[in-house]
Design brief:
Blueprint lengths: L5 E3 L2 H7 L2 H13 L4 H8 L3 H13 L3 E3 L10 E3 L4 E3 L6 H27 L6 H6 L11 H16 L3 H4 L31
Parallel strand pairs: 1-4
Antiparallel strand pairs: 2-3
Length: 196
């Protein structure tokens, strides 16, 4: 697996991954390693045939590849990259639209994950309830300060990424935890103050 995030620039790639089942498959393969369509189906509550179809679509665009150690229906699949990124600055108009769709799918998945965690909070042990948190802030920042804060958040999150690849680095009692962060201008620019 390539450890660097994959940069998506092609509208077909962006559309191919912007599907909830495919995102679930890719996430499971990244977190748990190679699995067959049957194992993925059991893990995700999908039929093996549906997982197999989505795996072929993911493979078509290079998101997954066959792993060693199986044949036919019992062949395992693996993720080819650790994460993805996409950017509008260098993209075609078609890729911009596809990228925005993918962004919406990702945000919808993460909001749903947050809501599920909040609704099942009472089932968690006290230590996990106390450890869980959400934060929202509004700050007056320069563009340089926004870059600095975003970079620090990314650096902190990436500091534990080695545990995905090497289970021996995971402390006893560790669980998969989800983070979603963004630092953006809260409102569109005011045309009356542009350039000030």
């Amino acid at each position: 697996m390539v450890h660097e995030p994959r940069t998506l620039t092609d509208a077909r790639e962006l559309r191919a991954i912007a599907h909830p089942v495919r995102m679930n498959i890719l996430e499971a393969l990244m977190l748990e390693g190679p699995m067959t369509a049957s194992e993925l189906g059991q893990r995700l509550g999908e039929s093996p045939a549906n997982c197999s179809w989505h795996l072929r679509k993911l493979a078509e665009h290079g998101f997954v590849a066959e792993a060693e150690g199986g044949t036919g229906r019992r062949r395992p699949w693996k993720a080819t990259h650790r994460g993805m990124r996409w950017d509008e600055d260098e993209a075609s108009a078609e890729a911009v639209v596809a990228g925005r769709t993918l962004t919406r799918v990702v945000l919808d998945r993460e909001v749903a994950r947050f809501v599920r965690a909040t609704e099942s909070r009472e089932a968690e042990a006290k230590e996990w309830r106390d450890a869980s948190s959400s934060t929202q802030s509004m700050l007056w920042l320069t563009a340089e300060e926004l870059v600095e804060i975003n970079d620090k958040v990314a650096e902190l999150l990436l500091s534990k990424m080695d545990r995905l690849e090497d289970p021996s680095l995971r402390p006893e009692g560790a669980r998969v935890c989800a983070f979603m962060a963004w630092g953006i201008p809260a409102y569109p620019p005011d045309p009356t103050t542009e350039g000030n």
